[in-house]
Design brief:
Distance between the termini: 36 Å
Structural class: mainly beta
Radius of gyration: 14 Å
Number of strands: 11
Number of helices: 0
Strand content: over 45%
């Protein structure tokens, strides 16, 4: 049973748009941070955007003005609206959920959804 499920990836032409969605299972409690990461072939995984319960939202400099991150606590989802996509945005995008409770701090990762930006 998957606890973190991502969807929305696919093939898109440069300049196009995609929306990624991440859903956290109700079995995950005490969520503090939800975030999107990405990893391109041969490169390190990097943070794209994140939001905490403060709340605060942070964006990577490479996506500011193009990507919009939104969190819906009631639906336990985070969306990443990606506009003006570039070939360099091609990567596997991962959703990460961080929880914190008396038992400790835990990270949950989804399986990833692949985004390919090409003609």
């Amino acid at each position: 049973q998957e606890q973190i499920v991502e969807s929305g990836g696919g093939l898109v032409q440069p300049g196009g748009s995609l929306t990624l969605t991440c859903v956290a299972s109700e079995t995950i409690s005490n969520i503090k941070t939800m975030a999107w990461y990405r990893q391109a072939p041969g490169k390190q995984r990097e943070l794209v955007a994140q939001v905490t319960n403060a709340p605060s939202t942070d964006y990577s400099e490479s996506v500011k003005g193009r990507f919009t991150f939104s969190r819906d606590n009631a639906k336990r989802t985070v969306d990443l609206q990606m506009n003006s996509l570039k070939p360099e945005d091609t990567a596997v995008y991962y959703c990460k959920v961080q929880t914190a409770s008396w038992s400790g701090v835990w990270d949950y990762w989804g399986q990833g959804t692949e985004v390919t930006v090409a003609s």
